[in-house]
C-alpha cells in the first residue's frame, strides 16, 4: 500500500517531493503503525482437541506461533497444552515467567481471565495479541471457544478485554468464529476470524496456514522484506482457497478481517491488491502493523509511526478525489500532506542521527 502511494506521488509530483525530502529516507520506510518492543505479549490459547488428530494439529499450530514469537523477540504465553491444561506456559524468551504461578491449578478459562486482568494495567502503544487455536461453536445466539474445561463465549471475552487500554490483535482460527467480530471489534483493535458466519462449522485450515505466514517470504506481497497483518491475511486466504480447489472440495470457510471498529469486516476477495475495493477503510490499520517490523522502521518513534499512518490514509483518500475536485484545491491539499510527511521524516532522521 505504501509503495503504491509513493509511485503515485512520484508520477504526479516528482520534483515537488524530491525538493522536500531526501528520497532515501522516504523510500526505505514502509508505513508501519507500531514498533513492537519486548513488552508486546502474545497470549495463545490451545483449546480442547477432542481426538489425537486434532491434538497433533493444535500442537503444530501452537509451535508455529512460538517460533514466530521467538523470531520477533516477543513475550509468548501459552494457555492449554496436552501436558498441562491449567498453567500458562511462557516461552524461554518471555519476560513474563513470574506471571504463571498465580494461575496454577485453575481452569484455562480462569487462567485467561486472570491473565487479561493483569495485563489490563499495562498501557502504551505495545500491542497485545490474543490467538486461539482450537474448535468453536455457535448455537444461533452465542459463539463459543471450546477450551479444555469450561468454554468461553464471545460475551465473556468482550467483558474481559473491555478494560485493556492498548492496541489489540485478536486471531480466531476456529470454526464458527465470525460472531466474535461483532462483540470484540473496537478502536485500536484488529480482529481476524476464519469464518464469515457462525454457520461455517467445519474445521478451518485458515488458522493452520496463518500461523505459518509471518515467517514465509512469499507472504511479503509488497516486497518490503516484512509481512504485515494484512499481507498475512490476504496470503493465507488465497492459500486456503487454493487448498480447497486442489483437493476438489467446496470452499467451506471464508476468513474476515475487521480493523475499523464497525463490527462488519471484509473478506480477501474484497481487496484489489493491498487496497480495499469501493469505499471501505478496512485493512488500512492491519496493513501498517507487523509482528516483525521492517528494518527501516526499527528505532523510530512510535508516535511518529502512528502519525505517518494517518497522513498516508489522508493521501490515499485524496488520491480517490483527484478527478472530482478543483485542481488547485487538490494540489494545495496534497502539498499540505506531503509537507507534514517531509517534516516528520526529517525529524525522525535527526533523532536517529541521520543527516
Structure report:
- With 355 residues, the protein is α/β, with parallel strands linked by helices.
- The chain folds into 2 domains: 2-32 and 302-351; 41-287, Rossmann fold.
- Helices cover 41% and strands 12% of the residues.
- It contains 12 helices and 12 strands.
- The protein has helices spanning 2-12, 14-20, 23-27, 52-72, 108-119, 154-161, 179-184, 206-213, 229-246, 284-287, 302-320, 327-351, and strands at 41-46, 75-79, 89-90, 128-133, 136-138, 143-145, 152-153, 168-172, 189-193, 256-258, 271-272, 275-276.
- The strands form 3 sheets. The protein has a 7-stranded mixed β-sheet, sandwiched between helices. A 3-stranded antiparallel β-sheet has the order 5-6-7. A two-stranded antiparallel sheet has the order 11-12.
- It is globular.
- The chain starts with a helix and ends with a helix.
Keywords:
12 helices; single chain; 12% strand; 2 domains; alpha/beta; seven-stranded mixed sheet; three-stranded antiparallel sheet; 355 residues; Rossmann fold; disordered N terminus
Contiguous helical run count: 12
Kindly report the CATH topology of the largest domain.
Rossmann fold
Structural class: alpha/beta
**Which CATH architecture of the largest domain?**
3-Layer(aba) Sandwich
Topology, element by element:
Elements: H1 2-12, H2 14-20, H3 23-27, E1 41-46, H4 52-72, E2 75-79, E3 89-90, H5 108-119, E4 128-133, E5 136-138, E6 143-145, E7 152-153, H6 154-161, E8 168-172, H7 179-184, E9 189-193, H8 206-213, H9 229-246, E10 256-258, E11 271-272, E12 275-276, H10 284-287, H11 302-320, H12 327-351
Helix pairs in contact: 4-8, 8-9, 11-12
Amino acid at each position: 500500500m505504501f509503495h503504491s502511494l509513493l509511485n503515485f506521488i512520484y508520477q504526479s509530483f516528482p520534483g515537488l517531493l524530491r525538493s522536500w525530502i531526501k528520497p532515501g529516507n522516504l523510500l526505505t520506510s514502509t508505513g508501519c503503525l507500531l514498533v513492537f518492543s519486548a513488552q508486546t505479549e502474545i497470549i495463545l490459547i490451545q483449546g480442547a482437541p477432542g481426538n489425537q488428530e486434532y491434538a497433533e494439529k493444535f500442537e503444530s499450530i501452537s509451535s508455529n506461533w512460538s517460533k514466530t514469537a521467538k523470531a520477533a523477540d516477543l513475550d509468548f504465553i501459552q494457555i492449554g497444552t496436552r501436558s498441562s491444561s491449567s498453567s500458562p506456559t511462557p516461552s524461554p524468551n518471555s519476560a513474563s515467567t513470574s506471571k504463571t504461578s498465580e494461575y496454577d491449578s485453575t481452569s484455562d478459562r480462569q487462567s485467561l481471565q486472570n491473565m487479561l486482568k493483569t495485563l489490563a494495567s499495562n498501557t502504551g502503544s505495545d500491542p497485545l495479541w490474543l490467538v486461539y487455536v482450537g474448535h468453536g461453536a455457535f448455537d444461533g445466539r452465542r459463539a463459543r471457544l471450546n477450551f479444555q474445561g469450561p468454554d468461553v463465549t464471545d460475551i465473556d471475552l468482550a467483558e474481559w478485554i473491555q478494560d485493556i487500554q492498548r492496541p489489540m490483535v485478536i486471531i480466531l482460527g476456529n470454526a464458527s468464529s465470525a460472531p466474535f467480530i461483532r462483540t470484540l471489534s473496537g478502536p485500536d483493535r484488529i480482529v481476524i476470524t476464519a469464518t464469515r458466519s457462525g454457520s461455517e462449522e467445519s474445521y478451518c485450515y485458515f488458522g493452520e496456514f496463518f500461523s505459518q505466514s509471518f515467517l514465509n517470504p512469499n507472504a511479503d506481497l509488497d516486497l518490503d522484506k516484512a509481512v504485515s497483518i494484512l499481507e498475512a491475511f490476504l496470503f493465507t486466504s488465497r492459500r486456503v482457497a487454493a487448498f480447497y480447489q486442489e483437493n476438489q472440495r467446496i470452499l467451506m470457510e471464508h476468513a474476515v478481517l475487521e480493523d475499523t471498529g464497525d463490527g462488519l469486516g471484509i473478506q480477501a476477495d474484497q481487496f484489489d491488491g493491498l487496497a480495499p475495493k469501493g469505499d471501505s477503510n478496512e485493512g488500512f490499520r492491519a496493513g501498517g502493523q507487523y509482528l516483525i517490523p521492517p528494518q527501516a522502521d526499527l528505532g523510530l518513534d512510535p508516535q511518529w509511526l502512528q502519525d505517518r499512518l494517518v497522513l498516508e490514509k489522508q493521501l490515499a483518500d485524496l488520491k480517490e478525489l483527484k478527478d472530482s475536485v478543483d485542481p488547485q484545491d487538490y494540489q494545495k491539499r496534497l502539498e499540505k500532506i506531503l509537507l507534514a510527511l517531509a517534516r516528520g521524516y526529517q525529524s525522525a532522521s535527526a533523532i536517529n542521527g541521520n543527516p
